[in-house]
């Protein structure tokens, strides 16, 4: 489902977005019929408050929407994100909304609120349409919303309909639509081509493991590579998860979904870069062929890894993909993965940790996260913890004992496979919204992609959006 702005029309109903401190004065200056309606239903400008005002003839004349106080707005990622759902069918204009990032945020929230996952059950469409407010990049916002919708659709689809085959099909469909090249290494060919850890994690499933490789853009453009964890379902392997922990594991390919959504944004906005997307797509299943606790695997770059928990499989498949990516020495290498529960304990479901040693990139991402309402929080590649991921019998340990600093040690593990890249950033995303919030329905969540898009767009520009 693609949300778009309505064509400009003089018949659009105006929406007046009013902070609490100006609501009373605005209401007092309205014509007498409107003031009379507000006598019956007062309007104080509280955040999320909505009043429909009608003309003497009975038609909808205007909408008052409360913008609240700065303190109220700070508590919501998308203030007024539920506005469209509170309005009757029709076309609306938001041109007197706050300026700058707040106006952009309001417009984007309107588009995001139109998302429906309706593959298995009909869900009523959003009937209120918005004319793009003056001063916003409408084409950019439409492509952001479309990329988010793609990622959310993939995450929301259960594993019986979104296994490695279907994830590959989604990647191929995107590549074909955007004029990108795609290749796939599948099954035992992974061993022949030196991707042993992707093969080891996925070999227990009857759905063959694979590495999906998408390439787009001019050969002489700056190289950016996105690597997304594509574990389409995670039983935990022989270290099997309890049932309660397995219930949401359809979202364990959230990193792959996010990089595909971001890739669509990049390609449709025609950013001037050379994009590569790598997705190791597997199911972590249980069978006689499953890899075992205590096994030692040799990764693509030659490092040996002792397996102390088969439920720490995401970093294994990412490691082989990152090693391949680093061989090309991209200017920027990014991994996105639903990697650790420790990240959720530290920062909750809505704020993904960001890891990078590149100070300029970290500053740009922090600024973008704030202006684009796409939260991130920088965590450290804390070098003294390196010893925690070094066991006695191999170069690396995939699941350090003790339980401390789980997100940091996972990020340190991944960093061992990126030598050669110009800059590296890792996003430990959750990929899920546990309870519906304004402009964010319960279910799959595309996290970090819009903030990274902002940085890439500032660095690499683009042409006309599709």
UniProtKB/TrEMBL annotation:
<dbReference type="GO" id="GO:0006508">
    <property type="term" value="P:proteolysis"/>
</dbReference>
<dbReference type="GO" id="GO:0070006">
    <property type="term" value="F:metalloaminopeptidase activity"/>
</dbReference>
<keyword id="KW-0645">Protease</keyword>
<dbReference type="InterPro" id="IPR000819">
    <property type="entry name" value="Peptidase_M17_C"/>
</dbReference>
<dbReference type="InterPro" id="IPR043472">
    <property type="entry name" value="Macro_dom-like"/>
</dbReference>
<dbReference type="Pfam" id="PF21337">
    <property type="entry name" value="Peptidase_M17_N_1"/>
</dbReference>
<keyword id="KW-0031">Aminopeptidase</keyword>
<dbReference type="InterPro" id="IPR048816">
    <property type="entry name" value="Peptidase_M17_N_1"/>
</dbReference>
<dbReference type="GO" id="GO:0005737">
    <property type="term" value="C:cytoplasm"/>
</dbReference>
<dbReference type="InterPro" id="IPR011356">
    <property type="entry name" value="Leucine_aapep/pepB"/>
</dbReference>
<protein>
    <submittedName>
        <fullName>Leucyl aminopeptidase family protein</fullName>
    </submittedName>
</protein>
<keyword id="KW-0464">Manganese</keyword>
<feature type="domain" description="Cytosol aminopeptidase">
    <location>
        <begin position="309"/>
        <end position="316"/>
    </location>
</feature>
<comment type="similarity">
    <text>Belongs to the peptidase M17 family.</text>
</comment>
<keyword id="KW-0378">Hydrolase</keyword>
<dbReference type="GO" id="GO:0030145">
    <property type="term" value="F:manganese ion binding"/>
</dbReference>
<dbReference type="Pfam" id="PF00883">
    <property type="entry name" value="Peptidase_M17"/>
</dbReference>
């Amino acid at each position: 489902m693609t949300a778009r702005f309505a064509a400009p029309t003089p018949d659009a109903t105006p929406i007046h977005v009013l902070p609490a401190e100006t609501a009373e004065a605005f209401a007092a200056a309205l014509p007498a019929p409107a003031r009379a309606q507000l006598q019956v239903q007062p309007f104080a400008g509280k955040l999320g408050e909505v009043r429909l005002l009608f003309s003497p003839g009975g038609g909808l004349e205007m909408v008052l929407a409360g913008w609240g106080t700065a303190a109220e707005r700070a508590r919501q990622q998308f203030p007024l994100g539920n506005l469209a759902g509170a309005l009757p069918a029709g076309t609306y204009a938001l041109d007197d909304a706050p300026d700058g990032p707040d106006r952009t945020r309001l417009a984007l929230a309107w588009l995001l609120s139109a998302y429906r996952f309706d593959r298995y059950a009909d869900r009523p469409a959003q009937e209120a349409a918005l004319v793009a407010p003056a001063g916003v990049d409408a084409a950019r916002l439409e492509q952001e919303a479309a990329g988010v919708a793609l990622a959310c659709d993939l995450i929301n689809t259960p594993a019986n309909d979104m296994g490695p085959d279907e994830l590959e099909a989604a990647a191929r469909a995107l590549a074909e639509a955007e004029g990108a090249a795609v290749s796939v290494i599948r099954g035992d060919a992974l061993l022949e081509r030196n991707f042993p850890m992707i093969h080891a994690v996925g070999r227990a499933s009857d759905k063959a493991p694979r590495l999906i490789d998408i390439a787009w853009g001019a050969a002489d453009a700056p190289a950016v590579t996105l690597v997304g964890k594509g574990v389409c379902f995670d039983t935990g392997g022989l270290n099997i998860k309890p049932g309660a922990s397995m219930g949401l594991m359809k979202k364990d390919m959230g990193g792959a979904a996010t990089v595909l959504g971001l890739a669509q944004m990049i390609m449709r906005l025609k950013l001037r870069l050379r994009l590569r997307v790598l997705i190791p797509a597997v199911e972590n299943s249980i069978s006689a062929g499953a890899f075992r606790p205590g096994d030692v695997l040799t990764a693509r770059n030659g490092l040996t890894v002792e397996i102390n928990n088969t439920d720490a499989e995401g970093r294994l498949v990412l490691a082989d993909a990152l090693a391949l990516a680093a061989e090309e020495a991209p200017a920027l290498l990014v991994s996105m993965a639903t990697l650790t529960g420790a990240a959720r304990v530290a920062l909750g479901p809505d704020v993904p940790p960001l890891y990078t040693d590149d100070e300029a990139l970290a500053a740009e991402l922090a600024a973008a996260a704030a202006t684009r309402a796409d939260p991130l929080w920088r965590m450290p590649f804390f070098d003294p913890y390196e010893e925690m991921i070094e066991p006695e019998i191999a170069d690396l340990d995939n699941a350090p004992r003790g339980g401390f600093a789980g997100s940091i040690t996972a990020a340190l593990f991944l960093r061992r496979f990126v030598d050669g890249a110009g800059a590296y950033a890792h996003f430990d995303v959750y990929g899920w919204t546990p309870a519906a919030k304004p402009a964010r329905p319960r279910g799959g969540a595309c996290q970090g992609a819009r903030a990274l898009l902002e940085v890439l767009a500032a660095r690499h520009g683009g042409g006309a959006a599709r």
